[in-house]
Amino acid sequence: MKSSSFKRIALASLLACGGAAQAQISGDVVKIGIITDMSSVYADIDGAGGVEAIKMAIADMKGMVAGKKIEVLFADHQNKADVAASKAREWIDTQGLDLLIGGTNSGTNLAMAKIAAEKKRPFISIGAGTSRMTNEDCTPYTIHYAYDTVALANGTGAAVTKGGGKSWYFLTADYAFGASLQNDTSAVVTKSGGTVKGAVKHPLNASDFSSFLLQAQGSGAQILGLANAGGDTINAIKAANEFGITKTMKLAGLLMFINDIHSLGLKTTEGMYLTDSWYWNQTPEARAWSRRFFEKMKRMPSSLQAADYSATMHYLKAVEATKSDDADKVLAKMKDTPINDFYTKGTIRKEDGRGVHDMFLLQVKSLKESTEPWDYFKVVTRIPGDEAFTKLADSKCPAVKK
Amino acid sequence: MTDFFGIPLPALLGQLLLGLVNGSFYAMLSLGLAVIFGMLNIINFAHGALYMMGAFLAWMGLEYLGINYWAMLLLAPLVVGALGIVIERALLQWLYKLDHIYGLLLTFGITLVTEGIFRSFYGVSGQQYAVPEALQGATNLGFMILPNYRAWVVVASITVCIAVWALIEKTSLGATLRAGTENAKLVQAFGINVPRMITLTYAGGVALAAFAGVLAAPILQVSALMGSNLIIVVFAVVVIGGMGSILGSILTGLGLGVIEGLTKVFYPEASNTVVFVVMAIVLLVRPAGLFGKEK
What we know:
The complex is a heterodimer.
Chain A: H1 2-22, E1 29-36, H2 47-60, E2 64-65, E3 68-76, H3 81-95, E4 99-102, H4 106-119, E5 123-125, E6 142-144, H5 149-162, E7 167-173, H6 176-191, E8 195-202, H7 210-218, E9 223-227, H8 230-242, H9 245-248, E10 250-253, H10 258-264, H11 266-269, E11 273-276, H12 284-297, H13 303-322, H14 327-336, E12 339-340, E13 345-348, E14 355-357, E15 359-364, E16 377-383, H15 385-388
Parallel strand pairs in A: 1-3, 1-4, 4-5, 5-6, 7-8, 7-9, 9-10
Antiparallel strand pairs in A: 2-3, 11-15, 12-13, 13-14, 15-16
Chain B: E1 3-4, E2 7-8, H1 9-40, H2 47-65, H3 69-90, H4 100-122, E3 138-140, E4 145-147, H5 148-170, H6 172-182, H7 184-189, H8 194-216, H9 226-241, H10 246-266, H11 274-285
Antiparallel strand pairs in B: 1-2, 3-4
């Protein structure tokens, strides 16, 4: 008896030593950095809440992975691509960053993806919408996790067109993301038997939309597609109600988050369709996590904040499994392992790094239907991942072999 | 239907009117800036933050205390004006003898702090403020549907602008004010309390900003960023009109609103920058601005 228990202890300590010797963590710490909009138009949908979600994932790992400490860094890119790029470069060069997470804004994310690929670090884009991320601008180090403009178009664009909204006019934010969203939605609308009557491009952060809306109304289209986001979408919807545009045209918010609905109120947004990857009230697990998030932030999480948690967790589990923070090993593991948590069930495509999972077409509830604060959506349809996202055959990513 | 460069005339009229609505905000804000610059020689960068504060006070009044729009239209400028007195007495009065840049930096700092506080409490998506009942609905003008509230904004702000202009240009109080800026020592020798006059001028200027904020609350989302979105344009208006020129800022404000409105029709992408293009051209031709006096 004695000798066998001694053997067992000896074996265990040998294994433990062996394990530690095998774990290859650079700098003896796993550093995760998020660069997002902390102060401007998109700060509510990701921002401090996104950082908190990542911290929650780290806390759920008890702060340790593969026997090493986990640290988090965060920075505000102020929606400037050059700021995002130089911060990413600084962290990788001087801080030994192991994982870069990109928050909102397509322009900043495209810039970060370039740096990450050049320096061979995993880059997970959460908040960027542009489908270029896994097409023309794909890299072996980029994972596009939560959603993209193609998925949004396949959700709202297809549903509204099939529901009778045959003619469209777009109100488009004048930068990479807006153009991407307009193009992808136009393609889906045309494919579903609709027509596009025109578009007006507005500068980012335009405070007054009445002028653009009158032009849209002059087009005679049935549907006004809002190819913008955040404060721009909010002010556009507000002005559309004020000018009675909503009496002649139906609004389709092509990218909206729960925070936008919260800010506008149900009276203004009732009945609108939107497409999202996740809604806090859709499953018991999602609700449970969201309540924890609410305790800390005093508001319910957006889909991006839930994705921040999920992506961090998925990465940390891959580090745990490979006992390494080597970019290529961890990325291979992440792409091999299905994602299965309260946020989503899905996979990360090996070829282009596209996170493929279900999307949801949601409709905003009326005041009467809403039973509690933040109870805003009805799930209309579930859009399976392989229908929502770009198919490999249509990918423009050079790494995809055809 | 008559066309004007490919745009139907009724649509164009609509755009001109909308430009006028935005222009009246520019006019009211730049008027406050011009008055403050004229009397105090301070480039008041905090103007946007105080405008935002006006809007927030209106929202808070309704949300927390149930005070309606009309009362807040009066109360918010008073509260912000009082705050202006504190700012002037505690901070600005020490800077008059220094270069403009000190005043600019100080007021810019005040802006950052104020916006930061509101942002951390209320986020950036903004708060919803309903149009007051009496002004709900819209009027069909034939060429466009004009929301009654927007019409009210134009009337209210032009009235206030004219009143302020008349106060400064046509009354004896205004004459004293103008004399005070020309030669403070001499005016003081007549037994007039110039420092107090200056304090009240600053309070009056920022009260105008708060008034504009309350007017804007039902149109825009009430958010911490609403001031900084506007302030750069408003500064351009002041420069184009001629620093310190009261009539200049009113007319340029309205005019630039209209020019911006037209740009939104003909080349929307440039609507955020057209004001600065105009500024560059004006400064090339008339370095002191359209209505400014060369010194």
